[in-house]
Protein backbone atom coordinates (compact mmCIF):
# COMPACT_ATOMS: atom_id res chain seq x y z
CA UNK A 1 0.00 0.00 0.00
CA UNK A 2 2.83 2.35 0.89
CA UNK A 3 4.52 1.60 -2.42
CA UNK A 4 1.38 2.27 -4.43
CA UNK A 5 0.93 5.46 -2.42
CA UNK A 6 4.39 6.55 -3.46
CA UNK A 7 3.63 5.82 -7.11
CA UNK A 8 0.43 7.84 -6.83
CA UNK A 9 2.28 10.71 -5.19
CA UNK A 10 4.85 10.78 -7.98
CA UNK A 11 2.31 10.50 -10.77
CA UNK A 12 0.38 13.45 -9.37
CA UNK A 13 3.39 15.65 -9.92
CA UNK A 14 3.17 16.79 -13.51
CA UNK A 15 6.70 15.91 -14.57
CA UNK A 16 8.13 14.46 -17.79
CA UNK A 17 8.17 10.65 -18.12
CA UNK A 18 11.92 10.37 -17.43
CA UNK A 19 11.71 12.56 -14.34
CA UNK A 20 8.67 10.58 -13.18
CA UNK A 21 10.55 7.30 -13.52
CA UNK A 22 13.51 8.73 -11.62
CA UNK A 23 11.29 10.03 -8.83
CA UNK A 24 9.50 6.68 -8.52
CA UNK A 25 12.82 4.84 -8.22
CA UNK A 26 14.03 7.29 -5.57
CA UNK A 27 10.80 6.96 -3.58
CA UNK A 28 10.88 3.16 -3.69
CA UNK A 29 14.52 3.23 -2.59
CA UNK A 30 13.62 5.53 0.30
CA UNK A 31 10.85 3.14 1.25
CA UNK A 32 13.18 0.12 1.21
CA UNK A 33 15.79 1.98 3.25
CA UNK A 34 13.13 3.01 5.77
CA UNK A 35 11.89 -0.57 5.98
CA UNK A 36 15.44 -1.80 6.54
CA UNK A 37 15.95 0.77 9.26
CA UNK A 38 12.73 -0.17 11.06
CA UNK A 39 13.66 -3.89 10.99
CA UNK A 40 17.16 -3.07 12.22
CA UNK A 41 15.78 -1.00 15.08
CA UNK A 42 13.44 -3.85 16.02
CA UNK A 43 16.39 -6.21 16.02
CA UNK A 44 18.43 -3.75 18.06
CA UNK A 45 15.80 -3.45 20.75
CA UNK A 46 15.61 -7.24 21.01
CA UNK A 47 19.37 -7.54 20.87
CA UNK A 48 19.92 -4.79 23.44
CA UNK A 49 18.05 -6.78 26.06
CA UNK A 50 20.59 -9.59 25.65
CA UNK A 51 23.75 -7.74 26.65
CA UNK A 52 26.04 -10.04 28.62
CA UNK A 53 27.52 -8.22 31.66
CA UNK A 54 30.97 -9.65 30.90
CA UNK A 55 30.99 -7.90 27.50
CA UNK A 56 33.17 -4.75 27.23
CA UNK A 57 31.41 -1.53 28.29
CA UNK A 58 29.06 -0.25 25.62
CA UNK A 59 29.62 3.36 24.59
CA UNK A 60 26.40 5.06 23.62
CA UNK A 61 26.23 7.73 20.96
CA UNK A 62 24.18 10.94 21.02
CA UNK A 63 21.62 9.45 18.60
CA UNK A 64 20.15 6.11 19.76
CA UNK A 65 20.78 2.99 17.63
CA UNK A 66 22.21 4.65 14.54
CA UNK A 67 24.53 7.25 16.10
CA UNK A 68 27.72 5.23 15.57
CA UNK A 69 26.69 4.37 12.00
CA UNK A 70 26.25 8.07 11.29
CA UNK A 71 29.62 8.75 12.96
CA UNK A 72 31.41 6.24 10.71
CA UNK A 73 29.63 7.59 7.63
CA UNK A 74 30.77 11.12 8.56
CA UNK A 75 34.30 10.56 9.81
CA UNK A 76 35.18 7.26 8.12
CA UNK A 77 37.48 4.85 9.90
CA UNK A 78 38.85 7.73 12.03
CA UNK A 79 35.61 7.65 14.03
CA UNK A 80 36.78 4.51 15.84
CA UNK A 81 40.01 6.16 17.00
CA UNK A 82 38.02 9.22 18.08
CA UNK A 83 35.86 7.08 20.38
CA UNK A 84 38.86 5.66 22.23
CA UNK A 85 40.22 9.18 22.71
CA UNK A 86 36.87 10.25 24.13
CA UNK A 87 36.80 7.35 26.62
CA UNK A 88 40.44 6.90 27.68
CA UNK A 89 40.03 4.76 30.81
CA UNK A 90 38.70 1.72 28.94
CA UNK A 91 41.22 -0.86 27.63
CA UNK A 92 38.40 -2.16 25.43
CA UNK A 93 34.97 -0.72 24.64
CA UNK A 94 32.04 -1.63 22.42
CA UNK A 95 30.06 0.33 19.87
CA UNK A 96 26.56 -1.00 19.26
CA UNK A 97 26.00 -1.14 15.50
CA UNK A 98 22.37 -2.38 15.49
CA UNK A 99 22.97 -5.85 14.06
CA UNK A 100 26.34 -6.41 15.71
CA UNK A 101 28.91 -4.86 18.04
CA UNK A 102 32.30 -3.40 17.21
CA UNK A 103 34.76 -4.01 20.06
CA UNK A 104 37.53 -1.43 20.07
CA UNK A 105 40.80 -2.47 21.71
CA UNK A 106 42.69 0.48 23.18
CA UNK A 107 45.47 -1.24 25.11
CA UNK A 108 48.62 -2.98 23.82
CA UNK A 109 48.19 -5.67 26.51
CA UNK A 110 44.95 -6.80 24.91
CA UNK A 111 46.62 -7.08 21.48
CA UNK A 112 48.57 -10.05 22.89
CA UNK A 113 45.28 -11.66 23.95
CA UNK A 114 43.83 -11.10 20.46
CA UNK A 115 46.95 -12.62 18.90
CA UNK A 116 46.75 -15.66 21.18
CA UNK A 117 43.17 -16.26 19.94
CA UNK A 118 43.93 -15.69 16.26
CA UNK A 119 42.01 -18.79 15.11
CA UNK A 120 38.85 -17.51 16.82
CA UNK A 121 39.36 -13.77 16.33
CA UNK A 122 40.24 -13.96 12.68
CA UNK A 123 41.00 -11.72 9.70
CA UNK A 124 39.89 -14.30 7.12
CA UNK A 125 36.09 -13.75 7.10
CA UNK A 126 36.85 -10.18 5.99
CA UNK A 127 38.29 -11.60 2.77
CA UNK A 128 34.89 -13.15 2.02
CA UNK A 129 33.01 -9.97 2.97
CA UNK A 130 35.23 -7.89 0.69
CA UNK A 131 34.96 -10.46 -2.14
CA UNK A 132 31.16 -10.24 -1.94
CA UNK A 133 30.44 -6.65 -1.09
CA UNK A 134 33.33 -4.90 -2.77
CA UNK A 135 34.28 -7.15 -5.68
CA UNK A 136 30.70 -8.29 -6.34
CA UNK A 137 31.37 -12.06 -6.30
CA UNK A 138 28.38 -14.32 -5.81
CA UNK A 139 27.13 -17.91 -5.71
CA UNK A 140 29.55 -20.84 -5.95
CA UNK A 141 32.59 -18.60 -6.34
CA UNK A 142 31.86 -17.00 -2.99
CA UNK A 143 31.56 -20.38 -1.37
CA UNK A 144 34.93 -21.41 -2.79
CA UNK A 145 36.50 -18.23 -1.41
CA UNK A 146 34.87 -18.46 2.04
CA UNK A 147 37.09 -19.57 4.94
CA UNK A 148 37.11 -23.29 5.83
CA UNK A 149 35.90 -22.51 9.38
CA UNK A 150 32.64 -21.26 7.85
CA UNK A 151 32.33 -24.33 5.62
CA UNK A 152 33.83 -22.72 2.53
CA UNK A 153 36.82 -23.99 0.54
CA UNK A 154 39.24 -21.38 1.90
CA UNK A 155 40.37 -19.96 -1.47
CA UNK A 156 40.65 -16.42 -0.02
CA UNK A 157 43.44 -17.46 2.37
CA UNK A 158 44.97 -19.77 -0.25
CA UNK A 159 45.36 -16.83 -2.63
CA UNK A 160 46.90 -14.68 0.13
CA UNK A 161 49.34 -17.48 0.94
CA UNK A 162 50.30 -17.74 -2.73
CA UNK A 163 50.78 -13.96 -3.08
CA UNK A 164 52.65 -13.15 0.14
CA UNK A 165 56.01 -14.75 -0.86
CA UNK A 166 55.93 -12.79 -4.16
CA UNK A 167 56.24 -9.55 -2.19
CA UNK A 168 59.75 -10.36 -0.96
CA UNK A 169 63.04 -11.60 -2.46
CA UNK A 170 63.62 -11.70 -6.23
CA UNK A 171 59.96 -11.08 -7.14
CA UNK A 172 59.98 -7.93 -5.00
CA UNK A 173 63.25 -6.74 -6.56
CA UNK A 174 61.80 -7.20 -10.04
CA UNK A 175 58.71 -5.15 -9.22
CA UNK A 176 60.57 -2.39 -7.37
CA UNK A 177 62.99 -2.15 -10.29
CA UNK A 178 60.16 -1.66 -12.75
CA UNK A 179 58.41 0.84 -10.46
CA UNK A 180 61.53 3.00 -10.25
CA UNK A 181 62.01 2.82 -14.02
CA UNK A 182 58.42 3.98 -14.61
CA UNK A 183 58.70 6.75 -11.99
CA UNK A 184 61.67 8.54 -13.54
CA UNK A 185 59.87 10.29 -16.46
CA UNK A 186 57.38 11.81 -14.03
CA UNK A 187 60.21 13.91 -12.59
CA UNK A 188 61.36 14.99 -16.05
CA UNK A 189 57.79 16.06 -16.84
CA UNK A 190 57.68 18.32 -13.75
CA UNK A 191 60.52 20.42 -15.16
CA UNK A 192 59.08 23.61 -16.62
CA UNK A 193 55.67 23.19 -14.98
CA UNK A 194 54.82 26.08 -12.68
CA UNK A 195 51.93 24.73 -10.59
CA UNK A 196 50.71 21.19 -10.09
CA UNK A 197 48.02 19.51 -7.98
CA UNK A 198 50.49 17.56 -5.85
CA UNK A 199 47.95 14.96 -4.74
CA UNK A 200 46.89 14.26 -8.30
CA UNK A 201 50.53 14.10 -9.39
CA UNK A 202 51.26 11.49 -6.67
CA UNK A 203 48.15 9.53 -7.63
CA UNK A 204 49.04 9.46 -11.32
CA UNK A 205 52.74 8.65 -10.78
CA UNK A 206 52.03 5.85 -8.28
CA UNK A 207 49.13 4.41 -10.31
CA UNK A 208 51.16 4.17 -13.51
CA UNK A 209 54.40 2.94 -11.93
CA UNK A 210 52.81 0.36 -9.60
CA UNK A 211 50.41 -1.07 -12.15
CA UNK A 212 53.08 -1.17 -14.88
CA UNK A 213 55.21 -3.26 -12.54
CA UNK A 214 52.30 -5.49 -11.54
CA UNK A 215 50.56 -6.01 -14.89
CA UNK A 216 53.33 -5.66 -17.49
CA UNK A 217 53.04 -4.40 -21.09
CA UNK A 218 49.28 -4.82 -21.35
CA UNK A 219 48.66 -2.99 -18.06
CA UNK A 220 44.97 -1.94 -18.29
CA UNK A 221 45.56 1.09 -16.04
CA UNK A 222 47.81 2.70 -18.63
CA UNK A 223 44.54 3.90 -20.08
CA UNK A 224 43.74 7.05 -18.06
CA UNK A 225 39.97 6.40 -18.35
CA UNK A 226 40.33 2.97 -16.68
CA UNK A 227 42.57 4.46 -14.00
CA UNK A 228 39.99 7.20 -13.34
CA UNK A 229 37.21 4.60 -13.06
CA UNK A 230 39.37 2.67 -10.61
CA UNK A 231 39.76 5.76 -8.40
CA UNK A 232 36.04 6.41 -8.58
CA UNK A 233 35.48 2.82 -7.36
CA UNK A 234 38.13 3.11 -4.63
CA UNK A 235 37.19 6.57 -3.37
CA UNK A 236 33.52 5.64 -2.86
CA UNK A 237 34.25 2.22 -1.43
CA UNK A 238 32.29 2.63 1.83
CA UNK A 239 28.97 2.99 -0.02
CA UNK A 240 29.44 -0.46 -1.59
CA UNK A 241 29.80 -2.07 1.81
CA UNK A 242 26.13 -1.43 2.60
CA UNK A 243 25.41 -3.92 -0.26
CA UNK A 244 21.95 -2.44 -0.80
CA UNK A 245 21.17 -2.23 -4.53
CA UNK A 246 24.74 -1.00 -5.17
CA UNK A 247 23.97 -0.02 -8.79
CA UNK A 248 21.58 2.55 -7.33
CA UNK A 249 22.88 3.46 -3.86
CA UNK A 250 26.61 3.27 -4.67
CA UNK A 251 26.39 4.22 -8.35
CA UNK A 252 29.89 5.73 -8.82
CA UNK A 253 31.70 2.93 -7.00
CA UNK A 254 29.63 0.22 -8.69
CA UNK A 255 30.06 1.64 -12.20
CA UNK A 256 33.81 2.15 -11.64
CA UNK A 257 34.19 -1.43 -10.40
CA UNK A 258 32.30 -2.96 -13.28
CA UNK A 259 34.45 -1.06 -15.81
CA UNK A 260 37.65 -2.08 -14.03
CA UNK A 261 36.51 -5.73 -13.95
CA UNK A 262 35.72 -5.60 -17.64
CA UNK A 263 39.16 -4.08 -18.48
CA UNK A 264 40.87 -6.74 -16.34
CA UNK A 265 38.84 -9.55 -17.98
CA UNK A 266 39.97 -8.28 -21.37
CA UNK A 267 43.57 -8.18 -20.12
CA UNK A 268 43.43 -11.86 -19.11
CA UNK A 269 41.81 -12.82 -22.41
CA UNK A 270 44.68 -11.12 -24.26
CA UNK A 271 47.17 -13.06 -22.12
CA UNK A 272 48.53 -9.95 -20.34
CA UNK A 273 49.19 -11.91 -17.14
CA UNK A 274 51.64 -14.21 -18.97
CA UNK A 275 54.15 -11.34 -19.09
CA UNK A 276 53.42 -9.70 -15.76
CA UNK A 277 54.65 -10.05 -12.18
CA UNK A 278 54.83 -13.08 -9.91
CA UNK A 279 52.06 -11.68 -7.69
CA UNK A 280 49.65 -11.34 -10.64
CA UNK A 281 50.44 -14.88 -11.79
CA UNK A 282 50.05 -16.24 -8.24
CA UNK A 283 46.48 -14.98 -7.99
CA UNK A 284 45.57 -16.01 -11.53
CA UNK A 285 46.94 -19.56 -11.23
CA UNK A 286 45.45 -20.20 -7.78
CA UNK A 287 42.01 -18.93 -8.83
CA UNK A 288 42.11 -20.93 -12.11
CA UNK A 289 43.11 -24.13 -10.29
CA UNK A 290 40.17 -23.64 -7.91
CA UNK A 291 37.78 -23.39 -10.87
CA UNK A 292 37.00 -19.65 -10.90
CA UNK A 293 36.07 -18.08 -14.24
CA UNK A 294 38.15 -15.33 -15.87
CA UNK A 295 35.57 -12.72 -14.86
CA UNK A 296 35.49 -13.92 -11.25
CA UNK A 297 39.28 -13.83 -11.18
CA UNK A 298 39.19 -10.26 -12.52
CA UNK A 299 36.86 -9.34 -9.64
CA UNK A 300 39.34 -10.73 -7.10
CA UNK A 301 42.21 -8.95 -8.83
CA UNK A 302 40.37 -5.63 -8.44
CA UNK A 303 40.75 -6.03 -4.64
CA UNK A 304 44.50 -6.50 -5.00
CA UNK A 305 44.71 -3.32 -7.09
CA UNK A 306 42.99 -1.53 -4.21
CA UNK A 307 45.59 -2.90 -1.77
CA UNK A 308 48.37 -1.92 -4.18
CA UNK A 309 47.36 1.72 -4.59
CA UNK A 310 44.93 3.00 -2.00
CA UNK A 311 47.42 3.59 0.81
CA UNK A 312 50.60 4.14 -1.16
CA UNK A 313 49.18 7.23 -2.90
CA UNK A 314 48.15 9.20 0.23
CA UNK A 315 51.24 7.99 2.13
CA UNK A 316 53.43 9.44 -0.64
CA UNK A 317 51.58 12.74 -0.51
CA UNK A 318 51.93 13.02 3.30
CA UNK A 319 55.65 12.17 3.15
CA UNK A 320 56.16 15.09 0.73
CA UNK A 321 53.88 17.38 2.75
CA UNK A 322 55.56 16.57 6.08
CA UNK A 323 59.06 17.00 4.65
CA UNK A 324 58.53 20.22 2.70
CA UNK A 325 56.52 21.85 5.47
CA UNK A 326 59.51 21.39 7.85
CA UNK A 327 62.39 23.28 6.17
CA UNK A 328 64.96 22.35 8.83
CA UNK A 329 64.18 18.64 8.61
CA UNK A 330 64.10 18.87 4.82
CA UNK A 331 67.59 20.39 4.90
CA UNK A 332 68.96 17.57 7.10
CA UNK A 333 67.39 14.88 4.93
CA UNK A 334 68.73 16.46 1.75
CA UNK A 335 72.17 16.49 3.32
CA UNK A 336 71.86 12.83 4.35
CA UNK A 337 70.80 11.75 0.86
CA UNK A 338 73.38 13.92 -0.94
CA UNK A 339 76.19 12.49 1.22
CA UNK A 340 75.12 8.86 1.53
CA UNK A 341 73.14 8.08 -1.59
CA UNK A 342 73.64 10.40 -4.56
CA UNK A 343 76.46 9.53 -6.94
CA UNK A 344 77.29 11.71 -9.96
CA UNK A 345 79.25 10.07 -12.80
CA UNK A 346 81.89 11.83 -14.90
CA UNK A 347 79.22 12.29 -17.59
CA UNK A 348 76.90 14.06 -15.15
CA UNK A 349 74.51 11.16 -14.63
CA UNK A 350 72.91 11.51 -11.16
CA UNK A 351 72.33 8.07 -9.63
CA UNK A 352 69.98 7.47 -6.68
CA UNK A 353 70.51 4.00 -5.24
CA UNK A 354 67.52 2.72 -3.25
CA UNK A 355 69.67 0.18 -1.39
CA UNK A 356 71.74 3.09 0.01
CA UNK A 357 68.57 4.84 1.15
CA UNK A 358 67.68 1.70 3.06
CA UNK A 359 71.12 1.15 4.60
CA UNK A 360 72.61 4.63 4.98
CA UNK A 361 69.78 7.05 5.67
CA UNK A 362 68.67 6.42 9.27
CA UNK A 363 67.09 9.88 9.59
CA UNK A 364 64.98 9.46 6.45
CA UNK A 365 63.90 5.94 7.46
CA UNK A 366 62.99 7.10 10.96
CA UNK A 367 61.12 10.16 9.63
CA UNK A 368 59.21 7.92 7.21
CA UNK A 369 58.05 5.70 10.08
CA UNK A 370 57.08 8.72 12.16
CA UNK A 371 54.97 10.03 9.26
CA UNK A 372 53.30 6.61 8.95
CA UNK A 373 52.65 6.61 12.71
CA UNK A 374 51.21 10.09 12.94
CA UNK A 375 49.22 10.10 9.70
CA UNK A 376 47.60 6.67 9.85
CA UNK A 377 43.97 6.01 10.65
CA UNK A 378 44.52 2.22 10.47
CA UNK A 379 42.20 0.11 12.55
CA UNK A 380 43.06 -3.56 12.04
CA UNK A 381 39.81 -5.51 11.84
CA UNK A 382 39.02 -9.06 12.93
CA UNK A 383 35.80 -11.09 13.11
CA UNK A 384 34.93 -13.07 16.25
CA UNK A 385 34.16 -16.56 14.90
CA UNK A 386 33.06 -18.19 18.20
CA UNK A 387 32.09 -16.90 21.65
CA UNK A 388 35.33 -16.19 23.49
CA UNK A 389 36.53 -14.75 26.82
CA UNK A 390 39.33 -12.34 25.94
CA UNK A 391 42.15 -12.12 28.52
CA UNK A 392 39.87 -14.21 30.80
CA UNK A 393 37.82 -11.09 31.34
CA UNK A 394 35.92 -9.75 28.32
CA UNK A 395 33.21 -11.83 26.71
CA UNK A 396 33.00 -11.37 22.93
CA UNK A 397 30.05 -12.87 21.09
CA UNK A 398 30.42 -14.82 17.85
CA UNK A 399 29.72 -12.58 14.86
CA UNK A 400 30.93 -9.37 16.48
CA UNK A 401 33.75 -7.28 15.01
CA UNK A 402 36.99 -6.44 16.82
CA UNK A 403 39.24 -3.58 15.84
CA UNK A 404 42.62 -2.30 17.02
CA UNK A 405 42.97 1.37 16.05
CA UNK A 406 46.49 2.63 15.55
CA UNK A 407 45.44 6.06 16.72
CA UNK A 408 44.62 4.82 20.22
CA UNK A 409 47.46 2.35 20.62
CA UNK A 410 50.24 3.72 18.41
CA UNK A 411 49.97 7.13 20.03
CA UNK A 412 49.65 5.92 23.58
CA UNK A 413 51.94 7.46 26.26
CA UNK A 414 52.31 3.90 27.65
CA UNK A 415 54.31 3.13 24.55
CA UNK A 416 56.00 6.39 23.58
CA UNK A 417 55.96 8.36 26.84
CA UNK A 418 55.02 12.02 27.08
CA UNK A 419 56.06 12.74 23.48
CA UNK A 420 53.54 10.22 22.07
CA UNK A 421 51.43 12.96 20.48
CA UNK A 422 54.36 14.93 19.06
CA UNK A 423 56.14 14.54 15.74
CA UNK A 424 59.65 13.29 16.51
CA UNK A 425 61.60 12.45 13.36
CA UNK A 426 64.23 10.61 15.43
CA UNK A 427 61.76 8.42 17.35
CA UNK A 428 62.74 5.27 15.48
CA UNK A 429 66.47 5.80 16.09
CA UNK A 430 68.16 5.01 19.38
CA UNK A 431 71.08 6.81 20.96
CA UNK A 432 74.46 5.17 20.60
CA UNK A 433 77.58 6.86 21.89
CA UNK A 434 79.95 7.22 18.95
CA UNK A 435 82.81 8.48 21.11
CA UNK A 436 82.87 11.72 19.11
CA UNK A 437 80.48 13.58 21.37
CA UNK A 438 77.96 13.66 18.50
CA UNK A 439 74.81 11.75 19.19
CA UNK A 440 74.62 8.94 16.70
CA UNK A 441 71.30 7.20 16.33
CA UNK A 442 70.38 3.81 14.94
CA UNK A 443 67.18 1.77 14.92
CA UNK A 444 65.41 0.95 18.16
CA UNK A 445 64.04 -2.45 19.23
CA UNK A 446 60.42 -3.16 18.29
CA UNK A 447 57.54 -2.74 20.69
CA UNK A 448 53.90 -3.80 20.45
CA UNK A 449 51.79 -0.93 19.20
CA UNK A 450 54.90 0.97 18.12
CA UNK A 451 53.89 1.19 14.46
CA UNK A 452 50.51 -0.26 13.49
CA UNK A 453 50.18 1.36 10.07
CA UNK A 454 50.87 -1.97 8.37
CA UNK A 455 48.58 -3.93 10.70
CA UNK A 456 49.04 -6.24 13.62
CA UNK A 457 50.63 -9.72 13.45
CA UNK A 458 49.79 -12.33 12.37
CA UNK A 459 48.00 -10.33 9.62
CA UNK A 460 50.62 -7.87 8.50
CA UNK A 461 50.63 -6.00 5.22
CA UNK A 462 52.84 -8.08 2.92
CA UNK A 463 53.18 -5.10 0.54
CA UNK A 464 55.00 -2.91 3.05
CA UNK A 465 58.44 -3.41 1.47
CA UNK A 466 57.17 -2.65 -2.00
CA UNK A 467 55.34 0.46 -0.76
CA UNK A 468 58.36 1.65 1.27
CA UNK A 469 60.75 1.31 -1.68
CA UNK A 470 58.38 3.17 -3.96
CA UNK A 471 57.58 6.00 -1.54
CA UNK A 472 61.16 6.52 -0.36
CA UNK A 473 62.57 6.36 -3.89
CA UNK A 474 60.04 8.93 -5.07
CA UNK A 475 60.60 11.19 -2.04
CA UNK A 476 64.40 11.07 -2.39
CA UNK A 477 64.22 11.97 -6.09
CA UNK A 478 61.82 14.83 -5.36
CA UNK A 479 63.81 16.41 -2.52
CA UNK A 480 67.00 16.23 -4.58
CA UNK A 481 65.53 17.76 -7.74
CA UNK A 482 62.76 20.14 -6.73
CA UNK A 483 61.63 22.81 -4.31
CA UNK A 484 57.89 22.76 -3.60
CA UNK A 485 55.78 25.63 -2.23
CA UNK A 486 52.05 25.59 -1.49
CA UNK A 487 50.17 27.79 -3.97
CA UNK A 488 48.15 29.21 -1.05
CA UNK A 489 51.39 30.52 0.51
CA UNK A 490 51.18 28.38 3.69
CA UNK A 491 51.57 24.68 4.36
CA UNK A 492 48.06 24.38 5.67
CA UNK A 493 46.87 20.84 6.27
CA UNK A 494 44.38 19.81 3.55
CA UNK A 495 41.04 18.12 4.32
CA UNK A 496 40.85 14.34 4.22
CA UNK A 497 38.11 12.24 2.63
CA UNK A 498 36.20 9.76 4.77
CA UNK A 499 34.47 7.87 1.97
CA UNK A 500 37.22 5.37 1.26
CA UNK A 501 37.15 3.13 4.34
CA UNK A 502 39.87 1.04 2.72
CA UNK A 503 42.53 3.73 2.78
CA UNK A 504 44.16 4.15 6.17
CA UNK A 505 46.53 6.95 5.11
CA UNK A 506 44.18 9.91 4.85
CA UNK A 507 43.35 10.37 1.17
CA UNK A 508 42.64 14.02 0.31
CA UNK A 509 39.25 15.50 -0.39
CA UNK A 510 40.42 18.45 -2.51
CA UNK A 511 43.30 19.23 -4.88
CA UNK A 512 46.53 20.53 -3.33
CA UNK A 513 47.98 23.14 -5.70
CA UNK A 514 51.74 23.39 -5.40
CA UNK A 515 54.38 25.56 -7.05
CA UNK A 516 57.27 23.51 -8.42
CA UNK A 517 60.79 24.88 -8.93
CA UNK A 518 63.94 23.03 -10.01
CA UNK A 519 66.63 23.24 -7.29
CA UNK A 520 69.61 25.41 -7.94
CA UNK A 521 72.68 23.28 -8.65
CA UNK A 522 70.51 20.27 -9.58
CA UNK A 523 69.26 21.44 -12.96
CA UNK A 524 70.68 18.36 -14.71
CA UNK A 525 68.00 16.25 -16.32
CA UNK A 526 70.15 13.17 -16.31
CA UNK A 527 68.86 11.09 -13.39
CA UNK A 528 68.62 7.37 -12.76
CA UNK A 529 67.47 4.99 -10.00
CA UNK A 530 69.47 1.90 -9.04
CA UNK A 531 68.63 -1.04 -6.77
CA UNK A 532 70.92 -3.82 -5.57
CA UNK A 533 69.53 -7.33 -5.71
CA UNK A 534 68.35 -8.84 -2.43
CA UNK A 535 68.08 -5.45 -0.69
CA UNK A 536 64.40 -4.75 -1.29
CA UNK A 537 63.16 -5.50 2.25
CA UNK A 538 62.82 -2.45 4.50
CA UNK A 539 63.25 -3.42 8.16
CA UNK A 540 60.52 -1.14 9.47
CA UNK A 541 59.06 -1.59 12.91
CA UNK A 542 55.71 -3.41 12.74
CA UNK A 543 52.88 -4.42 15.05
C1 LIG B 1 51.67 2.68 2.62
C2 LIG B 1 51.15 1.63 1.99
C3 LIG B 1 50.35 0.54 2.65
C4 LIG B 1 49.73 0.51 3.88
C5 LIG B 1 49.69 1.62 4.94
C6 LIG B 1 49.09 -0.78 4.01
C7 LIG B 1 48.37 -1.20 5.13
C8 LIG B 1 47.77 -2.45 5.26
C9 LIG B 1 47.00 -2.86 6.40
C10 LIG B 1 46.71 -2.00 7.64
C11 LIG B 1 46.58 -4.13 6.19
C12 LIG B 1 45.67 -4.98 7.09
C13 LIG B 1 46.41 -5.67 8.20
C14 LIG B 1 45.55 -5.93 9.40
O1 LIG B 1 44.33 -5.83 9.36
O2 LIG B 1 46.12 -6.24 10.47
C15 LIG B 1 47.09 -4.54 4.89
C16 LIG B 1 46.89 -5.77 4.32
C17 LIG B 1 47.31 -6.12 3.07
N1 LIG B 1 48.07 -5.34 2.21
FE1 LIG B 1 48.78 -3.47 2.55
N2 LIG B 1 49.32 -1.51 2.86
C18 LIG B 1 50.09 -0.74 2.00
C19 LIG B 1 50.56 -1.11 0.76
C20 LIG B 1 50.35 -2.34 0.16
C21 LIG B 1 50.87 -2.72 -1.13
C22 LIG B 1 51.76 -1.87 -2.04
C23 LIG B 1 50.44 -3.99 -1.37
C24 LIG B 1 50.78 -4.78 -2.60
C25 LIG B 1 49.95 -5.56 -3.23
C26 LIG B 1 49.62 -4.42 -0.21
C27 LIG B 1 49.01 -5.64 -0.06
C28 LIG B 1 48.29 -6.05 1.06
C29 LIG B 1 47.64 -7.37 1.17
C30 LIG B 1 47.64 -8.47 0.10
C31 LIG B 1 47.02 -7.41 2.44
C32 LIG B 1 46.22 -8.57 3.05
C33 LIG B 1 47.15 -9.44 3.87
C34 LIG B 1 46.53 -10.73 4.40
O3 LIG B 1 45.32 -10.93 4.32
O4 LIG B 1 47.28 -11.57 4.95
N3 LIG B 1 49.61 -3.38 0.69
N4 LIG B 1 47.82 -3.50 4.34
Automatic annotation (TrEMBL):
List of residues binding heme: 461
Gene3D superfamilies registered for this protein in UniProt: Cytochrome P450
InterPro entries, A to Z: CYP450_monoxygenase_sec-met, Cyt_P450, Cyt_P450_E_grp-IV, Cyt_P450_sf
GO BP: any one term: mycotoxin biosynthetic process
Origin: domain of life: Eukaryota
Keyword Iron belongs to the record: yes
One GO MF term: heme binding
Keywords: Heme, Iron, Membrane, Metal-binding, Oxidoreductase, Transmembrane, Transmembrane helix
Keyword Transferase belongs to the record: no
SUPFAM superfamilies for the chain: Cytochrome P450 (SSF48264)
Requisite cofactors: heme
Pfam families: p450 (PF00067)
Family membership noted in the UniProt record: Belongs to the cytochrome P450 family.
Record's protein name: Cytochrome P450
Amino acid sequence: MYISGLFIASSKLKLGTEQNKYLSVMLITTFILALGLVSALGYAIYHGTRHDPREPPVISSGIPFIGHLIGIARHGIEYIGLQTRKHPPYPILSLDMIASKIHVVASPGLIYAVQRNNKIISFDPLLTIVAKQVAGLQGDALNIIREVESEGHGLGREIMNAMIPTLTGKSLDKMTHQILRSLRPFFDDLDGIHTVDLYDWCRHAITVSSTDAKYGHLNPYKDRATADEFWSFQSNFSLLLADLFPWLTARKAWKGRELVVSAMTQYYLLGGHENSSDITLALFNTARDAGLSIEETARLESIVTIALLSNTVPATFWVLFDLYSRPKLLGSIREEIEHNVLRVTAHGLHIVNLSDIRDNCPLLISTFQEILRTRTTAASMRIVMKDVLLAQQYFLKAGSILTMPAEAIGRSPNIWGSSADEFDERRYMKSVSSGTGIENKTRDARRVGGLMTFGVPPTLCPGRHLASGEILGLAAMMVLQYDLFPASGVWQEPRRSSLSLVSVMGPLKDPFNTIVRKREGFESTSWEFRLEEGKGNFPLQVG
